[in-house]
Amino acid sequence: MRKVLLIRYGEIHLKGQNRPFFIRMLAEDIKNALQGLGATVTRAQGRFYVENYPVELEDEAIDRLTRIFGIYSVSPAREVEKDWAAVCQNAAQMMAEETASRGGSCTFKVFARRSDKTFPLTSMQIAPELGGYLLEHVPGLSVDVHEPDVPLGVEIREHAYLYTGEIPGSGGMPAGSNGRAALLLSGGIDSPVAGHMVMKRGVEIECIHFHSFPYTSERARDKVVSLTRLLSRYSGSIRLHIVHFTDVQMAIYEACPDSQTTILIRRAMMRIAERIAAANECRALVTGEAIGQVASQTLESLCATDSVVGMPVFRPCIGFDKSEIMERARKIGTYETSILPYEDCCTIFTPKHPVTHPRLRDIEASERKLTNYEELLQGAIGRTETLLVTP
Question: What is the pLDDT of residues 50-61, one digit of tens each?
Answer without folding.
Answer: 999 998 999 999
